[in-house]
Amino acid sequence: MDISTLSEILSDGITISQLYDLVREEERSVPLDKKVERLLYDLMLSTNYKGHKYLKDSIIMLVNNEADSESFARYVYPVLGQKYGVNRQSIEKNMRFAIMKIYEQNTEENLLRLLGKPALCSPRPTNAKFVSICAAKLRLER
């Protein structure tokens, strides 16, 4: 929604709740992969890290209920390994490094704002826990 559209809507006498509904509808139309990319971008995770694509794909899998946090290691790592032609240990290590970078580069306030209270694990969550936190946040936004 651009500024001219917003000006037209407001001049038509639309209520705040109707405007809120329009914004929510537009937010729902954003594809899931773009929402995940935006979340990782907001968390300051560079696409240069191999773990970025692994985190993105695993978050999408959990949001789409293809896997759950209990079967994370048994399901997600083999699927990603087959997709990218790498072994399970490489995926796990690169995801762990990417999550470490997220926690080094973000303040507690930023993590709280973007992911909520569960993200304030000390020192940082496991791969499965972090992906579950991100997936839960995105599910709530749907």
Structure write-up:
By secondary structure, the chain is mainly alpha-helical. The chain folds into 2 domains: 1-30, no CATH class; 31-141, Arc Repressor Mutant, subunit A (Orthogonal Bundle). It is 71% helix and 0% strand. It is built from 8 helices and no strands. The two termini are 19 Å apart.
Write the layout of secondary structure elements.
Layout: H1 3-11, H2 16-28, H3 32-42, H4 50-63, H5 72-84, H6 88-105, H7 108-115, H8 127-141
Helix pairs in contact: 3-4, 4-6, 4-8, 5-6
Notable features of this structure?
142 residues; mainly alpha; Arc Repressor Mutant, subunit A; 8 helices; 71% helix; 0% strand; elongated
Text of the CATH class of the largest domain: Mainly Alpha
Distinct helical segment count: 8
CATH architecture of the largest domain: Orthogonal Bundle
What is the fold named in CATH at topology level of the largest domain? Arc Repressor Mutant, subunit A
The global form is elongated
